[in-house]
Amino acid sequence: MALSSPGTGNAAATSSRTSAAPAPGRGLLPLLLVGNTAMYSLYIGVGGILLALQVEQVDPAHKVSDFGLIAGVSAIFATVFNPVAGALSDRSGRRNPWILGGGLAAVPAMFLLGLADTVLLITIAWCLGQAVMNVYQAALASVVPDRVPTAARGKASAAVGLGLPFGSALGALAGAAFSEDHRTGYLVFGALVAAAAVLFTACTREQRLPARASLPVRAQLAAFTGALRDHDFRWAFTGRALLVLGYFAVSGYQLYILQDHTVLPDGMEPEAAVAVLVPLTSVAMVLSTVLGGYLSDRFDRRKLFVGASALLSAVALVIPAVSASWSAMLAFSVVNGLAFGCYMAVDTALVTMVLPNAEDAARDMGVLNIANAGPQIVAPFIASVIVSVSGGYTALFVAAAALAVAGALAVRPIRGVR
């Protein structure tokens, strides 16, 4: 993977710590895949299926607004805990203990979620789940800029990106399998993350980085916002936030879309439909993740692939807007999978090349993750308002497509990466 031009805002990100890093061991990339697969399986299986079914069971008349509230409030915890955990792991000079601690804590968090029987208790338990999962995620996301040289980051980013389709497929299938027993399902997902954390930390060695001195609170807040003053990082942040906002406005309500918008084949339940659509999307993601990562390395063109995949995502979102048929939903799943897989693989590589400071890699990756978690705060509220006002989901697809187009345009001003 090519470095940015000298003198650009992310020059510090190519310091000797990462540019001179040894080639990743053969086991690191598969372990990154396993770690991310477990994480995304919980996010999809719990956040996309079991949680929606649990909310519907508790309060069926207000499921859309209740689910929006729970998803939005819990995303605040994700937004806060990810950069904070990243900064703390930077300060400690270690990643593995944070990966292990967050992964093991997923088990009791999922146990408490299974016991919740009111909207308030579900909200509290899922907030706790988001908090511990983002401790895990922040440290795991720092492994690539810490341990992988820039020339190999396309492959490493592809390994990370493949965790999304594999985890989505696993999460959808397991979520559907435990749709009648969500308590057991929650424990299964928690145990999966814990096992992945144990495996990763037991099988990877990390070179302890210099510990960072403690900063005053005001200085820490300034450091968090300082990354956004970098021109390229700011635009990468904006593009990711816009696309993710549109993506989660739709994907968060997938089960309810299948219940209330899509005309399913006779005899097919929405849970079964999810178990068909998500693996289909995942196969498309796998193909585009691998191909996108390889071609972006081969042609040294990140912005082109990121922008084109964001535009393709907009095209995908238009399909179910013009047709509520099952065939349209199948087409949407394939095209959306191709678009989002390529986007996440190449955009992740692009982001590692515009980090303002390599010594603050985990913190800055945590700041960037606000572009992932932050939109999830407002997406459920926006989606519930659009659905309530318009009386259906067509307007939601159109709004999400417009956001994807805006996300594609946001990468154009980036100067340090082609």
Describe the structure in your own words.
By secondary structure, this protein is an all-alpha fold. It has a single domain (11-210, 223-410), classed as Up-down Bundle (Growth Hormone, Chain: A), CATH 1.20.1250. Helix content is 78%, strand content 0%. Helix 2 runs antiparallel to helix 5, helix 4 runs antiparallel to helix 5 and helix 7 (153-177) packs antiparallel against helix 12 (270-299). Mean pLDDT is 83; it is low at 1-20. One of its GO terms (molecular function) is transmembrane transporter activity. This is Major Facilitator Superfamily protein. The chain crosses the membrane at residues 27-55, 67-85, 97-116, 156-178, 184-203, 237-257, 272-292, 304-322, 328-355, 367-387, 393-411. Keywords: Membrane, Transmembrane, Transmembrane helix.
Strand content: under 5%
Main sheet makeup: none
Query: Considering DSSP H and I runs of 4 or more, what fraction of the residues is helical?
Result: over 70%
The CATH C-level name is Mainly Alpha
The chain-level mean pLDDT equals 83
- SS element count, helices: 16
**CATH-derived topology:** Growth Hormone, Chain: A
CATH superfamily: MFS general substrate transporter like domains
Structural class: mainly alpha
Region (Disordered): 1-22
Membrane topology: Multi-pass membrane protein
Transmembrane segments: 27-55, 67-85, 97-116, 156-178, 184-203, 237-257, 272-292, 304-322, 328-355, 367-387, 393-411
InterPro entries: MFS, MFS_dom, MFS_trans_sf, Tet-R_TetA/multi-R_MdtG-like
